[in-house]
Amino acid sequence: MATRFSAAVLPLLLGFLLLQGAPSRAADTDTVVIGRPLSGRQRLVSKRGKFALGFFQPAESSQNWYLGIWYNQISKHTTVWVANRDAPVSDPASAQLSISSDGNMVLLHGDRAKSPALWSTGVAGIAPSSSTVGVLLDTGNLVLADASNTSVVLWQSFDHFGDTWLPGGRLGRNKRTGEVTRLFAWKGYDDPAPGVFALELDPNGTSQYLLNWNGSMEYWTSGNWTGDGFTGVPELKAYSSSPMSMYKFGYVDGKDESYFFYDVKDEAVVTRFLVDVTGQIKFLTWVESAGAWILFWTQPKAQCDVYALCGAFAACVENELPSCRCLRGFRERRPLAWLQGNHAEGCVRDTALQQCARGGGVQGATREAKNDDGFYAMPNLRLPSDAQGVVAAASAHDCELACLGDCFCTAYSHNGSCWLWHGGLINLQDTSSTATGGNSGTIMVRLAASELTSPGRTKTVIIALVAVAAAVAAVTVAVLVSAFVLRRRRVKAQRRVVEGSLMALTYRDMQSVTNNFSDKLGGGSFGSVFKGSLPDATATLVAVKKLEGVRQGEKQFRAEVSTIGTIQHVNLIRLLGFCSEGTRRLLVYEHMPNGSLDRHLFGSSSSPGHGVLSWETRYQIALGIARGLDYLHDKCRDCIIHCDIKPENILLDDAFAVKVADFGLAKLMGRDISRVLTTMRGTVGYLAPEWITGTAITAKADVFSYGMLLFEIVSGRRNVEQRPDGTVDFFPSTAASRLLDGDVKSTVDRRLDGHADIGEVERACKVACWCVQDEEGARPSMGTVVQALEGLVDVTMPPVPRMLKVLGDPANYVKFFSGLPST
């Protein structure tokens, strides 16, 4: 007899059957014992579930597996210790962690009877009759202990750190053996092998920490311990009223060992101290509401103070992303690692040195041909410290000949004395806008002749100059903001640094910065904006936004702001600080001297500074906006939907470079903001249909708004204008019709007098039409928009959206929007 199931019962039954048919999995345990190894997807979990141990892959693209420990109760996989850092396995199913016959914990792979252990605790002298176990503790410490009494620890991972120092661990020195425990950075974000950066207690016996490169070059020290803190790190104290107050630091100088320790006063706080791939030590705390690790302390504070951060033949640029730049004539050795922020392997030559290629490496050899090799001058660089002096070279010309005569010479500098460099140039820093002092000057980098004479190099030089200019601007802003923070600390105001240079300020600070909110720059969907200046030596200009309608509590607001503050992109406005007191919520941004895009598109051309934007500038503005939105949608950890793309939220710096503003405010205000958006003047014309119909909002709502904005950039007029007879002119409908008729030239702003690249105009109109399609699925992603505007992909003729056809009738436009709230 057939049996019928309701739709509600069927899923439950299927789930029950799947559970019955699946192999049962033993409950997680914290212990590995003889005869019960750990393999495949199995794992150990500490008693209270805080940490887990098992096999993992450091990146999605990685083919390697490692045995490691990670936090078990947070949403982001974060590894704190790795056993087989230098010996990955290809298949965790064929690997196992077990207790060997000699009582040690071992990691075996493949044919376990023949293959040597990939990793072992390596404890000598364990009695043959002893029974041992491996136990994962709630501190994150893996111990090898006596099975009958696990308090008797024979080995522990806390004595063999990876890149992370957990609370309760001891980082120090054994006075009897001289052994020093070190934190070794990962080699790369996808490679846990020990890298070149390490932190250790001074092996010479002082009570200070040293950061070193390659075990030889010390580039940062904490200063000695005073009993209350480090002389070089006043913010790290045994007891502090700063954000570090949740931690207790201490130093023990005993007969057999010296070590530092730290503990967390609140066990609910999840924290880690690590040596990052970048060569900086970082203190981070997990903020669940933000779903991210929040950085509140790092050393050295200046990224470029890390020795050899950029590897060979690359220069470090402070406060710029990426922080490293290959020298002219060189390219990234590992492009993928470079994109991930790991620059340690540096750059390689595009073209080999010709004289060396012919074997002209004899010291003192004469130059065989005029165009063999040449030199490119790079001024304003911190010079490498490993130079060799040449006393005989009395002039710059003699110094050049001395370098040319030595095949292994890669660069020279002459400043009264002649200095030569051999091999890779490391530890270079662009000092054009920083006061590094000391060893800074011009270095002459040796290149093949073709690298100096190629006609295609002009564009490279221009790009390099633009990059340097951008670096100067970025560093200047960062230095001024840092000066402001330091000044505020000295006067003991109630504020603190939350993330990098992000400042937490009081409302009284905001009144002072803005002269009691006397100079209003404008307003938008989320509040009013006021001009201000920071109380530093140069009175850095800022824009302060007073948010309206924020419903979040202070703790959640701070978490969200700290997350947004870490987002940096050349086409996104930079958040400098915030205020959160009671119901008052304010944000501090960098000031954009050319204001918002609407002033230049729709303002009077006779107004000072409001000349007609050229087509070239408009196209670059459109491209910059697209790049900024692409970053928000697809390059951030979480997709950020702007929700209010319009000319008023597009700001322009002094060179008319684009800065998308108010990104992340939708995240602060909450997603239910359609009522706010639809009541704001000028915003209705940018809303995607799903805002009005009540459908769930996705990133494609921003794509629609971008398309409407792109129409305005092309035409130089509002999409919606009232005719003299009182009817409404809806320009996007007109533009779509002219595109189909092949008459895109007539869509261009008349004030340009026809001076526009018609190919680019057609491409822009096609992209705009695709962006405003009725169905979300028909709209492109912002990444595709970027590629289309760059000319990397062909753009086919789009269908005219039904909405544009309907709204092309002025009567329909009025009827369609008559039900929305009036302004």
Automatic annotation (TrEMBL):
InterPro entries: Bulb-type_lectin_dom, Bulb-type_lectin_dom_sf, Kinase-like_dom_sf, Pan_app, Prot_kinase_dom, Protein_kinase_ATP_BS, S_locus_glycoprot_dom, Ser/Thr_kinase_AS. Residues 29-157 form the Bulb-type lectin domain. SUPFAM superfamilies: alpha-D-mannose-specific plant lectins, Protein kinase-like (PK-like). Keywords: ATP-binding, Cell membrane, Disulfide bond, EGF-like domain, Glycoprotein, Kinase, Lectin, Membrane, Nucleotide-binding, Phosphoprotein, Receptor, Serine/threonine-protein kinase, Signal, Transferase, Transmembrane, Transmembrane helix. The chain crosses the membrane at residues 461-486. Belongs to the protein kinase superfamily. Ser/Thr protein kinase family. This is Receptor-like serine/threonine-protein kinase. The gene is LOC123071765.
